[in-house]
Amino acid sequence: PQYSADWGDYISFAKHMRDKADDDGSDLLVVDTGDRIEGNGLYDASDPKGRYTFDIIKEQEIDIICSGNHELYKSNSSEDEFRQTVPGFKGSYIASNLDIYYPDTDAFEPLAPRFKKFTTKNQGIRIIAFGFLYDFNGNANNTKVQPVEETVKEQWFQDAIRDRDVDLFL
């Protein structure tokens, strides 16, 4: 019992750690690499999966967030990710090699921006962050995961890694 926690505990912990970093002039980056609807110790047991998690996680300040494979197994989960989580973390959500079917355009388009360039608050570290998902192929047919080996050949990626105004790639 002394080691149990829930989303509220995690949100509170991250807030206190961020405040502590601000107080001493350091930077804290909170990164969420996915598997929010299952596959971790904090997901909910709802049906459909993640029904409550989507509302709770919006309370968390996250610097970089991307999808894991668990958000892609079922089409309704990836649609929820696209319609709720991506807009809830606009500017922080990245999807370097993940596309979703857009009914409006009848085509596959990026789930979110391919990368994020930002500067940390306290130390001014210039970062370019990517949000790659491993070469996963168990996803529903409304999403496409491009192999990393192909993605890194694309012009947007080549331009990003040649940016000279960067201190760190994440």
TrEMBL record:
Chain ranges of the Calcineurin-like phosphoesterase domain: 8-168
Pfam families referenced in this protein's UniProt entry, alphabetically:
Metallophos (PF00149)
Which SUPFAM superfamilies does the annotation name?
Answer: Metallo-dependent phosphatases
Matching InterPro entries: 5_nucleotidase/apyrase (IPR006179), Calcineurin-like_PHP (IPR004843), Metallo-depent_PP-like (IPR029052)
- Its protein name is Calcineurin-like phosphoesterase domain-containing protein
